[in-house]
Amino acid sequence: MQPKKILTIVGARPQFIKATVVSSQFSRSSQFEEIMVHTGQHYDANMSDVFFEELGIPQPKHHLGIGSGGHGMQTGRMLEALEGVMLAEQPDWVLVYGDTNSTLAGALAAVKLHIPVAHVEAGLRSFNRQMPEEINRVLTDHASSLLFAPTQTALEQLKKEGIPDARVLWTGDVMYDAALHFGKNPTGILQTLQLEPKSYVLATIHRAENTDNLERLRTIFAAFAELAQSHPILLPLHPRTRHTLEREGIVPLGVHSGIHLLAPVGYLDMVTLTKGAALVATDSGGLQKEAFFHRVPCVTLRDETEWVELLELGWNRLAPPHSVGGLTRAFELVLGSHGSHGLEGNPYGAGDAAQRILNALDTEINEQETRA
Ligand code: UD1
Ligand code: UDP
Questions:
Q1: Among all ligands shown, which has an atom nearest to the Cα of 70?
Q2: Is a pLDDT exceeding 90 seen at residue 342?
Q3: How high is the pLDDT of residue 244?
Q4: b/e for 65-84, b at 16 or more Cβ within 10 A?
Q5: Which atom of ligand 2 is nearest to the CA of 17?
Q6: In which band, very low, low, confident or very high, does the pLDDT at 344 lie, cut at 50, 70 and 90?
Q7: Is pLDDT above 70 for 48?
Q8: For position 346, what pLDDT does the model report?
Q9: Helix crossing, 214-227 with 239-248: angle to 10°?
């Protein structure tokens, strides 16, 4: 039998990390042929190439080179280019990850051509429609034929939205698969940066709601400056945040102030930095969970989170960046704390999400053929 052609669409940093574990399953299976498409949403070497090089992700057969731009322009240009690729490749399925503009463009281009879409990380909701990610998630879920929910909460949400049970499957979280797989061998970054384990705070900030709102951004950096008096802060800076900080002159902060600004690091260094941190402070979706996977307490600098299990388990605390005092109190409360332990407390599965996704695709394709 001919292998089934899967067209995988990636474009942004977290998607490279999510795709790596699923792609490695595809490469071991004779049932599937995976074609990788990179939209070019992220393009700096340390936002893109580094992940392909160190994680063994197949090189994209199609690189669309779309780059940055407003939401409409970026998504629209992707849509047009992806349609061309899909017409040329004629895939059996299109696979999309997460909630970025690349995700939505991939899903929309496919359904318009009547190609079924499978969505990894379906059913996540912040219930905040101001977030570009929330719109992307809702639209992608409702355009998809197979929805892979990473948590029970996500599964229930899709049911509430009326998506038929047959299209939805709990798989666990592919990011947990990646954390288990790549978390085994630490890199030498702690030695390079001369950091003792558990002596520092690891921080990342990039969300539009924080970087486009200067009051929130200033509040976050003022609170970091206070925290840095007791704990050095390591901050690999997303280019979006770097641009705003530089443009607005918000960060006159060098090594002397205890805030160490780094260029974005590769995933293997990031895993090592996360495991070694005393605290994670972030607005990242992925990093919140990775803190939990490696049992590091986390403060999330947002008003809400899609990953509510982390709050329930006590490994994460929400700290909306409304006041410096509020953030400083949250850091004090969370430093040195821990949530509940034990594997039964892991709502993100057992590290076999990628395998479950492949099995589900296989079953669905066989059933489709029986029906035809
Ligand atoms: C995107 C996703 C967000 C995800 C994040 C992961 C959307 C709407 N948002 O946000 O959900 O959490 O990726 O990191 O899809 N830039 C560079 N070099 C790059 C990439 C970006 O300089 O390689 C700068 C550009 O100035 C660009 C800005 O960062 O305008 C924002 O990039 P963009 O991809 O539009 O959104 P992210 O903030 O990265
Ligand atoms: N990450 C990385 N290097 C960095 C910052 C983050 O490899 O300098 C990883 C992080 O460990 C996680 C993923 O990127 O696996 C999260 O991506 P990001 O925070 O950009 O997006 P989000 O998850 O919020 O969509």
A1: 1
A2: no
A3: 95
A4: ebeeeeeeebbebbbebbbe
A5: 15
A6: low
A7: yes
A8: 86
A9: 90
Tokens 């990646």 map to which residue?
Answer: 178
Q: What is the mean pLDDT of residues 238-255?
A: 83
Ligand 2 atom closest to the Cα of residue 51 is 7
CA angle 118, 123, 125 (to 5 degrees): 140
How many CA atoms within 13 Å lie on the side-chain side of 66?
30
Task: Measure Cα distances from 25 to 33, 135, 137 in Å.
Answer: 11, 30, 25
Residue 367 burial (CB count, 10 A): 11
Mutate-to-test residue for ligand 1 from 43, 71, 78, 100, highest number of ligand atoms within 8 A of CB: 100
In the residue annotation, 42 being an active-site residue is answered as no
Pocket flag, ligand 1, residue 203 (CB < 6 Å): no
**47 Cα–ligand 1 center, Å:** 9
The CB of 211 under 6 Å from ligand 1? The reply is no
Determine the residue type at 87.
L
Maximal C-alpha separation, the chain: 67
Residue 8, number of CB atoms within 10 A of its CB: 26
Q: How far apart, in whole angstroms, are the C-alpha atoms of residue 106 and residue 63? A: 13
Residue 127 predicted with pLDDT over 70: yes
| Ligand 2 environment, Cβ below 6 A | 13-14, 17, 204, 206, 236, 264-267, 270, 284-287, 290
Question: Tokens representing 111?
Answer: 């359904």
Separation of CA 119 and ligand 2 centre (Å): 19
Residue 265: Cβ within 10 Å count: 17
Exposed, middle or buried by CB within 10 Å (0-12, 13-18, 19+), for 160?
A: exposed
